[in-house]
Fold this sequence. Notes:
alpha/beta, Rossmann fold, 6-stranded parallel beta sheet, 5-stranded mixed beta sheet, 10 helices, 11 strands, globular
Amino acid sequence: MPLHTTLDTWPKEVQAHRIVSLVPSISELLFDLGLDERVVGITKFCVHPKEWFKIKKRVGGTKTVKPDKIRELAPDMVIANLEENVEEQVMEIASFCHVFLTDIKTLEDALKMIEDIGTLTGTFSQATIIRQKIENGFAGLTRPTGRMSALYLIWRNPFMAAGGDTFISNLMEKAGFSNVVSNRQRYPMADPLAFRENPPDVVFLSSEPYPFGAKHLKEIGSFFPDSRIELVDGEIFSWYGSRLIHAPAYFCDLMQRLKNIR
Length: 262
């Protein structure tokens, strides 16, 4: 059974009555599409909704999926992601089950994925409503005339940032920020010394995958003395499912906090 990356190759006879999601943000989307009884498996990082996290079968982590556990659940559809999941594990799953493989790098990619999942699961009308809410929210987002430069840190020891080809970077741009490492790919190391001559206006400390918290503000501030250091919700910046409904309001509040940065 091959991997499917578009609707064109998905076999029409597969109705997706038993679904396993290997992607936390898509698990939340499936819940919001009303697919409670049809989702039979999730990962240990699929923390939303809380009720699913408590009762659904877990098939490992996003990088440590257990194909045997998935086989036991007898799904007819597994949803995976090119970046979040491991190729070898996904390929093994595809040997016994149809896998819909997503690849999300932009807001537009996310909106299309939401409707694709709606099509595959027979919930297109609900998916369209979610897409429209997200589109309307971003359309009404007021962006500053002068973009603030920003560095988005996802890891500590070593410091790593979100590069220009990531979904995080695309959302930063949509919100009105200029990613200072937009010319670098994926998640490059971010040596503070490299920004000494031209420091970013703001350094974002994400709540995931590394759990930056208040205790890190002073430490990071010592490396970036001329930048504003801001803790941010990593789920808002990196989850590309229905959580995007809440992103525009979050970005408005964030801009309000940062408006006196200069």
